[in-house]
Amino acid sequence: MENVHLAVEDEDLYSGYNDFNSTFFTETCDWSCAGENIFLKALMFSYMTTQPSFLLGTSANTSDWFCEQIHNCLSLYCRLSALTYFVKSTCVIKAHEGAARPMTSIRAAGYTSTMMRGSTFDTLGQHRGPAPPLEGKNEDAPEEKIKIMEKKVNDLIEESCMAYSSGTSQLALEKAKEARRKEQAVVRQREQSGTADHINLDLTYSVLLNLANQYEHNEMYPEALNTYQVIVKNKMFNNPGRLKVNMGNIYFQQKNYPKAIKFYRMALDQISNAHKEMRIKIMQNIGVVFLRMGQYSDAITSFEHIMRESPNITTGYNLVLCNYATGDREGMKKAFQMLISVPLGIDDEDKYIPATDDSSTNMVIDAIKNDKLYQMERDKKAQAEKYIMTAAKLIAPAIETSFASGFDWCVDMVKASQYVELANDLEINKAITYLRQKDFNQAVETLKTFEKKDSRVKSVAATNLSFIYFLEKDYDQADRYADLAMNANRYNPAALVNKGNTVFVKQDYEKAAEFFKEALKNDSSCTEGLYNLGLTYKRLNRLEDALDCFLKLNAILRNSDQVMCQIADLYEQLGDLQQAIEWLMQVISVTPTDPHILAKLGKLHNDEGEKSQALHYYSEVET
Questions:
Q1: To which CATH superfamily is domain 558-623 assigned?
Q2: Which Pfam families does the UniProt record give (predicted)?
Q3: By 3-state DSSP, what share of the chain in percent is helix, strand and coil, each rounded to 5?
C-alpha cells in the first residue's frame, strides 16, 4: 500500500502526450527556401523510422549525424521547391493559351469529373471560334464529273416514271432511252479514269429495268424481252430471276402460253420459299395460263394449292369455273364452299356509324367514311359478292337434277357463311330464272316469300312482282306491289318506273311523267325511266321535250334501233323529213332487213317527191 500513489484530482491524464525533443522541431529554423511544414515533418519521420541507431539510441554521434541529414534534406527540398514553382508557373501560362493537359503520362486521358485547369464551362461553344470554311468541290475532278452524270441519269429515270404515270407512254420511253445512253457514258467515263471497279450496278439495274418496262408498256415486246435478257444474264445483279415473271407476262400477252408457263416455272424455281406471297402469285399466273390452254386438270391443281396456302376470291372463282368446265359436281360444290370461305379482311361497317355524343369521334368518322381505304374495301366486297353470285347462278343448274334444288343448296351454303345477306339476292335470282323460263307462277311464289323480309329485299321483290303483274296486264296488282316497293324504299328507281307505268296505262300522263322524272332524279342512268318519259311527252304532244329525251337516250344507248325509230318519228311529226330519213338510214344500218323501216323510208321518199328512191325501198320490202 505504501507504493500506491493516488492520482491528484487536477492531474491531466494526457499530459506530456505531445511533448517531443526541441532539437527535431524545424519550424523555428530560418530557412529561406522552406516550403511546407508537412513535407518536412514527413521527411523527418521517415529518417527517424529508417535509422535503427537513432531509434535505439546506440550511436554516440546521433545528434551530429541527424543534423547533417537534416541539412542535406533541406538542401534537396529547396531545389525541389524551386523546380515545382517553375513548373506551376509554366502551367498557369499555358492554361491561358489553350486547354490544360495532364502533368504526367500516368494519368489516363479522357473523361474527368473535375473541370480542366484553365478552362471554363462553355455550353454554346462561343470560345471555339468560327468553323473553318468548307473545302470547295473541284468540279473538274473526274469523280465529281461522274457523280454529276449519275445524278442526271437518276433524274431521267424519275422523269420517265412520272411521264408514264401521267399517261404519256411515248415520252416515258424516250426518257428511258436517254437515261440508258447517259448511263453508258458514265460507265465509259469510269473506265477511262481507271475506276471501273466502282461502277454503280444499282444505277445500271434501275436504268435497264425501267427501259424494259417502258418497252413493255408501249407493246414493243421483242425489245422488252431483249432488255430483260440483259439483266437476267448478268450474274452481278441480285435476284434477276424475278424478272422472268415479267418475261412470262409478255409471252402471255403474245398468247405464247407454253413459253409463258416455262418462264413462270423458272421464276418459281429461283424464288425461295421465304417469299410466299410472290410464289402464290406466280402459281396463280400458271393456273390462268392452263385455263386459257384448256388444260383444266392442271389448272385445278394449281388453284387448289393456292386455296390451301393463301385463299383469295379470284382464285376461288377460277377454281369453280374449271370444275364447271370438267363437269365435276362434287368439285363444283367443294370449290364453291372454298369461295365463300375466303376471308376478306374487312372490318365491320359499324365503325362508320357516328356516335351520338362524341363530336371528335364523329368528325373522324366523317373524314374516313368515304376515304380511299373505305372505297377500296367497298370495291373488294362488291367484287366478292359479284363472283359469288355469278358462281352460284352458273353451278346451280349443274350440281343437282334441277336448277331449283341447285339454287336451294347454294342458298343454304351462303346462309351459313359470312355472306349471309347474299342469300336473299340468290332467292331473287332464282325467281328471275323462273321468269326467263316463263314459269310465272313459280316466280310469283318465290317472290312473295320476301314480303316479310327487311325493307331492301322487300322492295326488290315487290318491284319484280309489280313488273310480272304488269306483263300479265293485271294492273291493279301491279299498282299494289309498286306501292309496296315504294313504301319499302322510296328511292328505288325501278319501283318508281313501275308506278309510272301503272299510271300511264290509266292515261294520267302528267302524273306518270312526275314518277318518271323522280326515278331519273334518283338515278340519272335509269334508261327505262328516260324512254318512258319520252313516250309520255309524245302523248302530251310535247314533241320537243320528247325529242330531247330520246336524243339523250341515244347518247347512252348507241345503235339502239328502238330509240332511233322514235327520233325519226318525232322529226317526221315536226315536219323535218330529211332528218327523219337520216335517222331511219341509221336504223337500216343496224337492222337492214326490217320491212317496217324499209316501208317507212319508201313513204318518206315518196312524200319528198323522190319516186325512184321510194320505188327502191318498196321493192326491198317485197324481196
A1: Tetratricopeptide repeat domain (1.25.40.10)
A2: TPR_12, TPR_16, TPR_8
A3: 70, 0, 30
Q: How far apart are CA 271 and CA 249, in angstroms?
A: 17
**Joined grid coordinates for residue 433:** 330464272
* Single-letter amino acid code for the residue at 259: K
Q: Which amino acid is at 24?
A: F
* Range scoring the smallest mean pLDDT among 32-36, 41-45, 493-497: 32-36
Q: Virtual CA dihedral for 49, 55, 61, 65, nearest 10 degrees?
A: 10
Tell the residue number behind the cell numbers 332487213, with chain if given: 593
Task: Give the number of other Cβ atoms within 10 Å of residue 421's Cβ.
Answer: 13
Name which of 181, 133, 141 is nearest 157 in CA terms. 181
Q: What would the pLDDT profile of 191-243 be if each residue is shown by its tens digit?
A: 888 877 788 888 999 999 999 999 999 999 999 999 999 999 888 887 777 89
Amino acid 372 reads K
Q: Could you tell me which residues come within 8 angstroms of residue 20 by beta carbon, excluding any fewer than 6 positions away?
A: none
Which CATH code, of 2.40.160.60, 3.40.190.10, 3.30.230.10, 1.25.40.10, is assigned to 453-542? 1.25.40.10
Q: The whole model's pTM is what?
A: 0.64
Q: Residue type at 153? A: V
